[in-house]
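pinned: reference chain
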Amino acid sequence: MDPNLQSQFTELIARSQRILIFPKPSSRGEEIAAGLALGLYLDRQGKEAAVIVTVPAKLSFLPQPKQVMTEVEAGMDDEFIIRLNTSTKDVAELHYEKTDHSLDIYLRAKDGRFEPTDISFPETNPAADLVITVGVPDLDSLGETFKRDPDLFFSHPIINIDQRSENEQFGELNVIEPGVASVAEIVMQLITASAITPEIATCLLASLMLATRNFQLAAATPATLNRAARLVDHGAERAKIAAELYGPKPIPQLQLAGRILARTAVSASNSLYVSTLQPYDFSKTGTTEADLPQAVEELREHFGQLQKLLVLWSDGNLVHALYGSPDRREHETLAAEEGALRLEDALSRVSFEGIGPEEAQERISGKVGRGE
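pinned: its structure tokens
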């Protein structure tokens, strides 16, 4: 890593106090684990840091920083405070009247009267003075988090940490390292070795293991293995991580994956595999649609021919589709033409209203699954 990137990272952290961390939401979770590690590190630096993400159940065993929230709390940025000094006299009565053009506030003191000098207008603290994105190739990848408050990202400096070469480099500081297997390796190089506690090491090692399927993928380079060994030296609980992530799967999850597999057939027109679930597939297995991303990813991992897998299910007047594919262009096409939400690099979700599963399949099949 360029030493200048590390020094710029350290400088931006040093001059910031309120820091929001946005890992890329994904069912696999390596970016989330790395984001938790970064939050723990900033806690130790005395910063007011918050990780904005929904932590999936499978990562609930990981150490967590002081603040982890699913969305940014209603910010102080938009509030205007009127402060009344009550140190010398208390309020006896307060009411207000709102007209088309004004809001009149009436105050009566218990003794005497309030003067203009008793009123002040203190400045509010901003919700953040620095944003850090972790494994986010573009801001749209944050989904609803970005759509809810795009101004948050355009009005604050951003440290953009990612390993993807296609990253749009939207940050004030872009730390992009395409040669590594996981964003955790970048985080590990940015923070000082002496600051890596066993808790931070555990989160970083979990991220590495998730990104490399427990070091089974070719992406796990000798440098990756060396960093993993150093994290174990820092106290990372490798045995616990392996047991939690790669131990026996819960029966409901296995049953759901089995039903997807049982209903899978190859499309006659292309290399797309399609599985259409029924509502009772969820009720009979005790699962919900929230369990589908992990099931789809695991099927794609263990069955090489299912690299392009489309799962459809109905909910009232809506038909939902989850599409897994390694082809980034297909996901971009679905997002542009069907409004699909990119859940992670190889997984997108789209919903259709007023049509059946067969028509939904046709619409998606016409845009993807044609092979290389």
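why pinned: The chain has three domains: 3-73+127-245, 80-120, 251-365. The first helix runs from residue 3 to 14.
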